[in-house]
């Protein structure tokens, strides 16, 4: 299963600096690889048409619909109080503001990471390290106030699978450039983190304070 990673754009047509489809298309050109369709106030037929238009901008399976109805596909993102949808979906995410409930989610969003202009007063801010501690081993997206390359990089360094961004991209006068700056910073920090990890063939012998290669058949194994 592939869970969201990198730059994930959340929609809100009321905040977009231009027509929503055009803004999202620009963000995708800039490096956004996933989109979460919110806009839950739209009439059903109109929202389903919007889902079709957004799917055309993305690789298959990369549009996630907020709410239990996938609008003709099979990926949803649930609010904390949303019921689970019918079985058979390929991807289920859930919004969390505390320790994730792992019983039904393939990934979670944790928020707010930083104070956010989209929801002023919403908090307290978790910070990247605080969010990582809550997530444990669950794939997580950092959400809230990620409006600069330095903040995007900090979330990657903390272990986020991706950054979920709304206002910084939708309100931008140049959503393509904004998306590119955030996606590039996040990707560079993730690459640096991966490079810094010890090679899987090296085992830490902590009791004797040394590193040695794992010999074939010696019963020592490492999972990463």
Automatic annotation (TrEMBL):
Protein known as: Thiamine phosphate synthase/TenI domain-containing protein
Organism, scientific name: Paractinoplanes rishiriensis
Chain ranges of the Thiamine phosphate synthase/TenI domain: 7-169
PANTHER family: THIAMINE-PHOSPHATE PYROPHOSPHORYLASE (PTHR20857), THIAMINE-PHOSPHATE SYNTHASE (PTHR20857:SF15)
Ranges in coiled-coil conformation: none
Taxonomic path: Bacteria, Bacillati, Actinomycetota, Actinomycetes, Micromonosporales
Gene3D superfamilies: Aldolase class I
Keywords noted in UniProt: Thiamine biosynthesis
Biological process (GO), any one: thiamine biosynthetic process
Pathway named in the protein's UniProt entry: Cofactor biosynthesis; thiamine diphosphate biosynthesis
GO molecular function, one term: thiamine-phosphate diphosphorylase activity
Keyword Transferase applies: no
Cellular component annotations (GO), alphabetically ordered: cytoplasm
Source organism superkingdom: Bacteria
Task of the protein: Condenses 4-methyl-5-(beta-hydroxyethyl)thiazole monophosphate (THZ-P) and 2-methyl-4-amino-5-hydroxymethyl pyrimidine pyrophosphate (HMP-PP) to form thiamine monophosphate (TMP).
KW Cell division (keyword) present: no
InterPro entries, per the entry: Aldolase_TIM, ThiamineP_synth_sf, ThiamineP_synth_TenI
């Amino acid at each position: 299963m592939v869970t969201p990673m990198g730059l994930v754009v959340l929609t809100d047509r009321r905040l977009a600096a231009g027509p929503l489809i055009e803004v999202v298309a620009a963000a995708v050109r800039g490096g956004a690889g996933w989109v979460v369709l919110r806009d839950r106030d739209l009439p059903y037929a109109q929202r389903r048409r919007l889902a079709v238009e957004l799917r055309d901008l993305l690789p298959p399976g990369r549009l996630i619909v907020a709410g239990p109805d996938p609008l003709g596909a099979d990926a949803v993102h649930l609010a904390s109080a949303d019921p689970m949808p019918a079985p058979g979906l390929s991807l289920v995410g859930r919004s969390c503001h505390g320790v994730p409930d792992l019983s039904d989610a393939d990934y979670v969003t944790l928020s707010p990471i930083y104070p956010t202009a989209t929801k002023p007063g919403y908090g307290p801010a978790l910070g990247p390290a605080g969010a990582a501690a809550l997530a444990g081993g669950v794939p997580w997206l950092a959400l809230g106030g990620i409006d600069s390359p330095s903040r995007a990089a900090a979330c990657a360094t903390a272990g986020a699978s991706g950054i979920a961004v709304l206002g910084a991209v939708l309100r931008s006068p140049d959503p393509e450039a904004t998306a590119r700056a955030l996606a590039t910073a996040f990707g560079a920090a993730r690459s640096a983190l991966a490079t810094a990890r010890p090679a899987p063939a090296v085992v830490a012998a902590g009791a004797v304070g040394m590193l040695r290669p794992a010999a074939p058949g010696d019963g020592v194994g490492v999972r990463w």
